[in-house]
Structure formats: C-alpha cells, structure tokens
Amino acid sequence: MTEQAASNGANQNPQFSLQRIYVRDLSFEAPKSPEIFRQEWSPSVALDLNTRQKQLDGDFHEVVLTLSVTVKNGEETAFIAEVQQAGIFLIKGLDAASMSHTLGAFCPNILFPYARETLDSLVVRGSFPALMLSPVNFDALYAQELARLQAAGEAQA
Hints:
Order of helices and strands: HEEEEHH
Largest sheet: 4 strands, antiparallel
Distance between the termini: 47 Å
Structural class: alpha+beta
Radius of gyration: 20 Å
Low-confidence stretches: 4-10
CATH architecture: Roll
Number of strands: 4
Mean pLDDT: 90
CATH topology: Bacterial Protein-export protein SecB
Strand order of the largest sheet: 1-4-3-2
C-alpha cells in the first residue's frame, strides 16, 4: 500500500516542458516610405502587448504573445510592426492558481526575448534603426490583471 501511495504521489509532481517556439503571425507596414527616410528622425514608440492561451490535447497548451509596435515620426506613422510569438508547453500537476500564473506570466516571459528579437530584425530589414524594447515584468502585469478582475468582480457583486 505504501508503494501505491508513493507511485500516486510521483504522478502528482508538477511537470513543465517547452515543446516548441514559433512565429504564428508577422507583419510590417511602412506606409510613408520612402518619404519618411528623408525626414529628420525623432521617433515616438507605442507598444501594445497581449497574451492568450489555449489548451491543446491533454496537458499541452499553446501560449501566444502578441507585440504590436507603432512608431511615429512627428505626426506621421513611420512603421507598424507586429509579431505573434507562440509556444507549445507541456504543463501538468499544477493547481488552478499555479496553472493560471504559469500560462499568464511564466510562459510569456519565455516567449518575450524571441518576440523582441523578431521585431528588431523586422524593423532593421525595413531600413529603420534597431528597435530595442525594454524587458517586461509579466509577473507584475499578471498581478495587475488579477487585481483588476477582482475589483471588477466586487463591483458587479
């Protein structure tokens, strides 16, 4: 009986494994080229990021991190670049709160450097200066979203 309990406990150990990282979607638009290259360059950068996740077969999950960057030079849009960086993760043995945190913060943290490099490469290929995005604290963003959802739930109740 002790062996059975031990083997059942072994099956409950949390498991996390990265299966694949890939680009799901990629776009780049430079609506004012080539005229934009003849102007003095003083850009303003707007970054929008989003995550979504979907359970696949069994304990496999797809997490998609979307980074959208709009760069304006004065009032004119110099370029718009977007990447959907995705990953397939095997995750099992976690309670609901841990699973939510893993999918909402831990996995996007893994994907971000890939998305950042892809965007930088894309922008440079468009003949614009390198786009060096600052690191993002996905744990803090996750905590803010939880607080927002809790406040919205209390407001509705």
